[in-house]
């Protein structure tokens, strides 16, 4: 019984779940008002997925997936904090030219 549970935990997540995690990270990044923070989270999320794209070991995949889920939870909580305390002034990158 214990080996079946260990095998289930070591199983790699399906591709659809990994893509769903990436979309959730990008969606959460878009909730940040600050341009620099928003773009950093987008870039870091995409870079991490590209970096882990070549993983083939099921335990490494499961570990990377759980790390991604943990990062998503951190990003969600930080989005709330940033929305409460972020300055309301737009970045120069967000100001449209007239």
From TrEMBL:
Annotated protein name in UniProt: LYR motif-containing protein 4
CDD domains registered for this protein in UniProt: Complex1_LYR_LYRM4 (cd20264)
InterPro entries to which the protein is assigned, alphabetical: Complex1_LYR_dom (IPR008011), Complex1_LYR_LYRM4 (IPR045297)
Organism taxonomic ancestry: Eukaryota, Viridiplantae, Streptophyta, Embryophyta, Tracheophyta
GO biological process entries: iron-sulfur cluster assembly
Domain Complex 1 LYR protein: 17-74
Regions annotated as coiled coil: none
Any Pfam family the entry gives: Complex1_LYR
